[in-house]
Amino acid sequence: MERLKYLMDKLREDITFVVVPGAEGQVKKLRLPKYIIHGALALLLISTVTINSALVYYFVHNRSVSIENKQLSDEMADHKDRIARLEELNSSQAQLNDDMKAQAQRVAEVYESRLTELESLETQAITLIAKLNEDNDVSVHIPVSRSFDRLLEAEASEAANYDMQPTEDNDELDQLLALIEDNEISILMEQQLDEYSSVIDEVENTLDFLICKPDLKPADGTITSGFGIRRDPVTGRTSMHKGVDIANTRGTPIHAAGSGVVTFSGYNGSYGKIIIISHGYDYKTVYAHNNKNLVSVGDHVDKGQVIGEIGSTGKSTGPHVHFEIHFEGTQIDPVSVIN
After folding, report:
1. CA 205 to CA 197: how far, in whole Å?
2. How far is CA 303 from CA 212, 261, 315, 338, in A?
3. How far, rounded to the nearest angstrom, does the alpha carbon of residue 145 sit from its chain's CA centroid?
4. Helix then strand then coil, % of the chain, to nearest 5
5. Measured distance between the N- and C-terminal CA atoms of the chain, rounded to whole angstroms
C-alpha cells in the first residue's frame, strides 16, 4: 500500500522545462506533471507499435497478394497455352476431316470407275455368250456378278456424300477405308475383272474358232462319192479318195466352209480349177474341179461367202465340187466336220 502511494506521489511531481531564448531573451520555465509526460510517452509508444504493426501487416498482405497475383498470372498463361493447343488440335482435326473426306471422294471416284468397267465387261460377256448360244444352238452359262459390287457401289456413293462429323456414323466409312487399306476390295474387283476378261477372251476365241471352223457344207447337191477307199471312176483302180464329191449343175455356187484366207486360186492338173483356204486352228479346205474361181490369193473370206462355181475341170466325169478338209496336215472325212 505504501509502495502504491509512493508511486502516486512520484507521478504527481512536476518536471520543469527551462527554455532559454537568445542572449537578450527572458528565460522561461515550463512545469508539467510527470503523469502527463509519462502518458505522452506511452501514447507515443502505442502509436509507434500500432504504425509498425500496420506496416508489417501491409507488407505481409502485399507480399501475399503479389504471390497470389503471380500464381493467377501463371494459371492464366497456362490456360492460354491450353487454349492455343486446343485451337491447334481443332485445326488439325478439321484438316484430318478434310483429308478423310477428300480420300473418301477419291475412293468413290476410283471404285465408281472400276464398277463401270465391271458392268461394261459383264454386258459384253453376256452379249457374246448370248450370240454364241443363239448362233450355235448351245447353252453356255452366263456368269452372275458378285453380290459385293452393288454393296461397294452403295458404300462408295455414301463415302462421296459423307459429312465428316466425329459421330458413331463414321463406322461404315471406317470399314470402307479399312478394306481399302487392306486392299481387299481391289483384290475382289481385280478378281472379277480377270474373270470377266477371261470369259470374254474364251467366248471370243470360241466364236472366232466356230466362225473359222470349216463345218459348213460348201454347196447344195448330192454327195456322190464319200471319203475313203474307192474305185476311181476314171481309171477304175482302187485308190484313196481324200474328200467328198458334191454333185450339182454347172454354175451352182460354192461357199467357203469357214472364214479364212485364200492361199491358192488357180489351175492344178487333175484337180482343174482349185481354191485352197487356210482357216487357222490347223484347218485347211480344198475346193476342186470348179467352173470358175471368184476369189484370189490373199483374199479374206467369210463363212458362207460365194468363192466359185461348180464345174467339171481337170479329171472329172461330171459337174461337182471335190471338197477336202485338212486338219493338222492330214486329210480327214469332211462328213465328220460339216453340219
Report:
1. 12
2. 7, 11, 28, 12
3. 18
4. 50, 25, 25
5. 163
Q: Which pLDDT tens digit goes with each residue over 226-272?
A: 998 888 776 677 888 889 999 999 999 999 999 999 999 999 989 99
Pair 231, 238: CB distance under 8 Å: yes
Tell which residue, 280, 218, 271, 323, has the closest CA to residue 333: 323
CA distance 268 to 276: 11
Let me know how many helices (H) and strands (E) the chain has, helices first: 5, 14
Closest CA to 312 of 238, 252, 257: 252
Can you list the alpha helix ranges (DSSP code H) found in 13-33? none
Cell of 81: 497455352
60 or 17, which is more confident:
60
Pick from 203, 202, 210: which is nearest to 279 by CA?
210
C-alpha cell at 42: 506511452
Q: How far is CA 21 from CA 15, 16, 32, in A?
A: 19, 16, 19
**Amino acid code (one letter) for 219:** A
Retrieve residue 70's grid coordinates: 503471380
**Residue 320, amino acid:** H
Inter-residue contact 142 to 125 (CB < 8 Å): yes
Provide the β-strand partners of residue 241: 228
DSSP string, 126-191: HHHHHHHHHHHT--PPPPPPPTHHHHHHHHHHHHHT----SSTTHHHHHHHHHHHHTTHHHHHHHH
Say what the pTM is.
0.53
Provide the 8-state DSSP code for 316: -
Q: Cell 476311181 appears where?
A: 232
Short-list 254, 301, 298, CA closest to 273: 254
Q: Are 290 and 272 in contact (CB under 8 A)?
A: yes
14-19/253-255 β-pairing: unpaired
